[in-house]
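Below is a filled-in request sheet from our internal design queue. Each sheet records the structural input a requester submitted and the sequence that came back. We keep these sheets so that new team members can see what a complete request looks like end to end.

REQUESTER: design group, bay 2
PRIORITY: normal
MODE: inverse folding
CHAIN LENGTH: 313
BACKBONE (tokenized):
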């Protein structure tokens, strides 16, 4: 009888140990309707195949980046179903803090990617993986100045006001322009990450500013809308345009000269490293508090070279 009890106890311990290792990794991004975030998913899938063990992964996001309440609900639902870990790209630096705090209280490790949460919330997540958006904005500004010179008028087409990545990226861009040129900035205009909105806004800006020398589109859907507006208005190649991110549409704009350059983030790396880091946190391994996932300025000259191909999608 004692042998049977001991055997049963050993089985229970083994089962408990297995259950502790197996669980759900919830990857929650800003929207599923963007090739940028779909490329993040590819990276996350690759990390799960490489080292996910018996864990499973779910991938979700709202229909639009501006649907912040929907994203908050997704995080809260993940906490309620007791996932093993969360990889989150917060659409709003403040609105997501209470949900991430709930995860922390439930002892669920959270890895933040792409956009930072509000100051004071650092204890609630294990690591932040992102492009250094300030540096990325500066690179885009430098690329623009190199082509338009240091005097004249330029426009900034942004996306969601207050998003962590937007603050760093557009802030880095405008600060660099102000510090290194006498260029006048029109905007920023906020597309809410809607391509059609960016197209209409850019069309209006081009019509109202016939002397515009340059323009910056600060994320994927905004840059696509901007590029289409330049083509439709006959200004493609006449106004220096710098885009951000690197999907097929934006690559074609670089190749045909609509865009002078695109600053491309390591979106695949964001997903891959995000999942790897959350798995390390689940296993109680030490992780870095910040990881820079990098950015590459892609032009017609380097678009077919390895450094560009590694980040384009």
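RETURNED SEQUENCE:
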């Amino acid at each position: 009888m004692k042998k049977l009890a001991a055997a049963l106890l050993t089985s229970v311990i083994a089962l408990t140990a297995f259950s502790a290792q197996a669980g759900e990794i919830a990857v929650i991004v800003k929207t599923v309707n963007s090739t940028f975030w779909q490329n993040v998913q590819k990276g996350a899938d690759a990390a799960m195949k490489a080292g996910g063990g018996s864990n499973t992964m779910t991938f979700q996001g709202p229909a639009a980046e501006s649907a912040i309440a929907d994203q908050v609900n997704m995080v809260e639902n993940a906490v309620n179903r007791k996932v093993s870990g969360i990889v989150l790209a917060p659409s709003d630096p403040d609105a997501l803090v209470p949900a991430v705090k709930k995860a922390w209280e439930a002892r669920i490790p959270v890895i933040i990617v792409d956009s930072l949460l509000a100051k004071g919330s650092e204890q609630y997540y294990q690591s932040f993986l992102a492009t250094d958006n300030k540096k990325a904005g500066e690179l885009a500004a430098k690329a623009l100045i190199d082509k338009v010179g240091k005097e004249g008028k330029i426009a900034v087409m942004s996306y969601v006001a207050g998003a962590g990545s937007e603050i760093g990226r557009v802030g880095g861009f405008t600060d660099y322009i102000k510090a290194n040129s006498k260029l006048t900035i029109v905007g920023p205009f906020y597309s809410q990450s809607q391509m059609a909105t960016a197209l209409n806004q850019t069309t209006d800006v081009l019509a109202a500013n016939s002397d515009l020398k340059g323009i910056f589109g600060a994320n994927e859907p905004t840059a696509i809308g901007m590029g289409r507006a330049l083509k439709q208005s006959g200004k493609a190649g006449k106004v220096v345009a710098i885009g951000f991110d690197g999907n097929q549409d934006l690559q074609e704009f670089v190749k045909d000269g609509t865009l002078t350059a695109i600053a491309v983030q390591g979106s695949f790396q964001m997903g891959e490293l995000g999942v790897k880091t959350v798995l390390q946190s689940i296993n109680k391994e030490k992780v870095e508090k910040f990881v820079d996932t990098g950015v590459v300025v892609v032009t017609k000259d380097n678009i077919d070279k390895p450094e560009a191909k590694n980040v384009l999608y």
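SHEET NOTES:
- Residues 2-21 form the longest helix (20 residues).
- The domain at 133-265 is CATH 3.40.50.2300 (Rossmann fold).
FILED BY: M.R.
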